Amino acid sequence: MSKPPCVMFGQVVIGPPGSGKTTYCLGMQEFLTKLGRKVVVVNLDPANDGLPYQCSVDIAELVTLDDVMDGLKLGPNGGLIYCMEYLEANFDWLEKKLEPFKGCYFLFDCPGQVELYTHQNSVKNIFAQLTKWNFRLTAVHLVDSHYCADPAKFISVLCTSLSTMLHVELPHVNVLSKMDLMEQFGKLAFNLDYYTEVLDLSYLLEHLASDPFFKKFKRLNEKLVELIEDYSLVSFVPLNVQDKESMVQVMKVVDKANGYCFGDLEERSMEAMMSAAVGADFHFASTLAVQEKYLESNTKTVEEEVMDL
To answer: Poorest-confidence range of 46-50, 167-171, 173-177?
Structure first.
């Protein structure tokens, strides 16, 4: 009997420019490696020329944004679309590059142009081709958490996240990134749970109605909120890549989405990491401060659990 095809699990990391995709890939690569996974990072962003992580497959070997812009006289947006279409036309190159890493866990670092995930089909087709090659992928959509401090921007983020979920057609996890920096942009109007769970958005509309500028867009905002609530698909997982408890939470949600199952070795490794004292590699204070301020929870902090062990 022939062996069944090898199933490979992974994440496609997407989101707008500056949302922290490359930082997330670096942090998740280091985190999962410590848990015992063989992690392969694939850079699919032709504009990303300063990679901080160990990259096993790099689209720059096939095409770069600078070359396309210079050669075809395109702007950055048109250049990125061309690069993705070029990759789509060269699936054989991608398949050959991925072949040596069968059995590994994959992180695909993707471009930051929003239109690639809401309107244009090349990236969607690339993901579909990976699925045909027996990849089980979760789309991890990063959104900068500072948008929560502005109700109008948060509604826009909700619409973008919903559009991306419907267009990409993969198991999907929305992540609020840079939680450790959120307080720099002002106090939230509601508890953090309100934003992560996308609770009753009528309160957000009332908050907007108090602003003279947005008052004239009341009807438009009502329709956008109605659309988001009718689909009832959008929610967020908060993330600080320097906080190992936060990383575990995101990892579990992603693994549940794509069907990844823990092996015994990895489970023991995670237990060891979570029971270890605070180390130099991870910093809890910033995220815990945000949680204590915005979350009404009776659960113990990580430090308290460590002290009880």
So the answer is: 46-50
| Cα–Cα nearest to 240, from 145, 110, 138 | 145
Gap between the Cα atoms of 143 and 176, Å rounded: 5
User: Among candidates 242, 172, 174, 178, which has minimal Cα distance to 31?
Assistant: 242
User: CA–CA separation, 13 vs 20, rounded Å?
Assistant: 10
Q: Which residue type, as a one-letter code, is found at position 211?
A: D
Element (H, E) at 172: strand 172-177
- The string of pLDDT tens digits covering residues 197-232 is 988 888 888 888 777 777 788 888 899 999 999 988
Mean pLDDT for the stretch of residues 71-97? 95
Q: Partners of 143 in the beta sheet?
A: 176
In Å, what is the CA distance from 247 to each residue of 220, 263, 295, 297?
Answer: 37, 18, 18, 19
Q: What does the alpha-carbon distance between residue 176 and residue 147 come to, in Å, rounded to a whole number?
A: 9
Walk across the sheet containing 237-238 and list its strands.
55-58, 39-43, 105-109, 8-14, 135-144, 172-177, 237-238
pLDDT by residue (tens digit) across 143-168? Answer: 998 888 888 889 999 999 999 999 99
132-158 b/e (C-beta count within 10 Å ≥ 16 → b): eeebbbbbbbbbbbbbbbebbebbebb
